[in-house]
Records
---
Amino acid sequence: MSPTPKSLVLDLLSTLRRGAMPVRALVEAAALFGIEGNSLRVALARMLAAGVVERDERGQYRMGTAAGEINAYVAGWRHLDERMRRWDGGWVGVHGAEDVAANGTRRRGERALRFLGFRTLSPGLAIRPDNLAGGLDATRAALHGLGLSDSALVFVLRDLDPVAEARARRLWDVATLRRTLRASRATLEKSAKRLPRLAAPDAMRESFLLGGAALRQLALDPLLPPEIQPADEREALAAEMARYDRLGRAAWAGFLDSFGVLPARSAHDVRMIDAATTLAAAGGNT
């Protein structure tokens, strides 16, 4: 899937080790994906107004504070295992996320729930296994940081009846999750073999798009406990992505250096931000 002007800007600005990126670099990068300069500038203006990006006195752009929570959460794709703990059979529940439609925060709440792997068990009640690191307090804080309304109740459920317990464990399509993780790993393996032989613009595009697709999957993986979904396919994709990342860095290094930009990560390393802002159309922005 080709990036939108907004997601391209987020991805590139999020690669910066320090400083900002000149608009001409963003325009030139956008051209690689068939995005016109005017469309890129319109997206920048909207993002600037929303606080998603900031502009310094030289007219260069950097990530804004409005993108901070999502950026901080998704940047740790290499350490997904550290976000989990042993599951004791409990569930985290969220009730009341649908009661805030009137004040315009419902979509942000839905986005937060989806991003942290919650699924609807019954009308008004979304759940996930209570296996995220930090337990209830950390999960609650992450949900609110990602946009869940403070009025929503976040709590732990235990001792579901056998029928409800069985239904809860089936809320995630584990077979599809495993199949798509496996397919993404195979795609990266094939691309890694040909990437060093491609011309620079082609290597930049391919590493950005394929790496981005894989990272969207890692970002949206519900991080289920092994009692529900074995971790082997997710771990294999993350390991392959770490290897592919080195090729992505090399593909983009010359371009970024030509604009005096110091990358902390490859240009596809933060495509998860795009997932957070567009998943299931819940983010509402393009």
---
Amino acid sequence: MHRTSCLNCSRALFPNQHYCPHCGQKTDTKRITFRQLTADFLQFILHAERGLWRLLKGLIIRPGQTAIEYVEGKRKRYFNPFAFLALSLAAMVLIHSFIKPYEAIQEPDPFVEIRMPNERVRELYRTTVHKIASIQKFGNANLNTLSVLVSPYFAFFLWLFFKRRGRNVAEITVVYILYTAISNLLASIIISPILAGLKDSGAYWPVFYLSLFLQTCYIVWGLNTFFNYRTTNGYFKILGALFLIGVIGFIILMGSLFVYVYHGKYMEVLKYLG
């Protein structure tokens, strides 16, 4: 039986109309069933698969050209960047929940407590350690998300450094999010299992910093083409800019965390830490 009105917007429908002329919903919408859910899911996967594969392949093989094509108008060709970001974050959370590539949470050191003159100072010390532990836990649970959230910060300063290259802040932000998402995803797949096997060993931090360096090199590689540099000089300019932006951000972050942990009366603890 033909419907006389749209189930979504209640507008009148005419015979032989397959879509509502007002909202675009199908006129043959039926009750939700598991069969329909399965069909809708497969349709979404098959529809998104090509764009997702193109985006993944492009970001891995030619990140600069892929970014240029997307920001200059080839949006239909590629998977949506923010949907890709959501999928990447979900995959990283899943991977890290299984392998847990984090070092042990900091605990009060009895050898440090011995140096404390009285119980009051020891209690202050334990509180600072608990604060540091809470920061570690938050960072371990949200590291990849936080690295993406700082993308606007990096994008803004990259725009200041390279505004003559003709890219605006929004374009740089989208591209930086794409590069950060794919580099974090690849690091989670390749590096995180290695870190999980090196927990609490002397090799853990060298491998961790090597991973950050490789991710930075990848971003530099992509941005060099995106900013239309044609010589190796462009690589060094972008690397230098990222290093300076990162150092400034690191100083701001560590300064804020230091104030959070050791402000006021907790400053007394510092002279006993060695």
---
Amino acid sequence: MPISWRLRSATLTTQDHTLIMGVVNVTPDSFSERRSLVAGSGMVHIDAAIARGLRLYEQGADVVDVGGQSTRPGSRAVSTEEELARTESVVAGLTTLGVTVSIDTSRPRVAAAAIAAGAEVVNDVTALRQPEMAELCAGAGVGVVLMHMQGTPETMQLDPRYGEVVAEVAAELEALAGAAMQAGVAADRICVDPGIGFGKTLDHNLALLTGLERIGATGFPVLVGTSRKGFLGKILERAGYPAEAADRDPATGASVALAIAHGASVVRVHNVTDVLQSARTADAIVRHGHD
């Protein structure tokens, strides 16, 4: 069944295909941009980041997600000023070129600057828990992504524990969506993300991916981000085919196809060209006989 997701000035729909969110990480330790977007001193190459975002959009991304703060396991926060310096001009440059942009941040100041620069979505790994962020998103009428995370990026992988991970994550996402709506965010602007790799073991991640229908039962579009993540590395290592993050696109494609089969509405990826083939193939198989 097609799902619509209303953004600030547009509405995205899964009527024709699963939505693709392309990643532009303007951080020194990103999975894919560290050489081209960040200089040796840590300075962001704004033009290179804009060019990458535009390329992802032209390759088929429905949304380009710009982030200036790493959320990898063990990562530490940079200052708000540094995050602003990394992202504000990139968002402005992309929106000027007609790209639909999401800002990946948990800081209200960074989100506000991105919205002023034309961002359509706020992708918050802390799920609008800050009242100021919820108020900002409600007032601006942007689309939001509410992600589940146990702990913080610095601590989340130390010892994640759940009783029944799928049920618990689904219940918490429902509660987070309810809080966002109480703060004024419209229900049709909300997308939920089970937070693959964010405070989860390999088994937790696999359970969530095979249990996405329960997440989808919340009634909101479901975003899944598996791209190049550590759990894929563990799977490949156990199978005897170890691969660094940048070499995990085939594994990413497999996880994307299966996520779509289990009900994902949006997939967030680094390599749009290759993964789009996996997504479109999965779409054709899953939708066959249902059009």
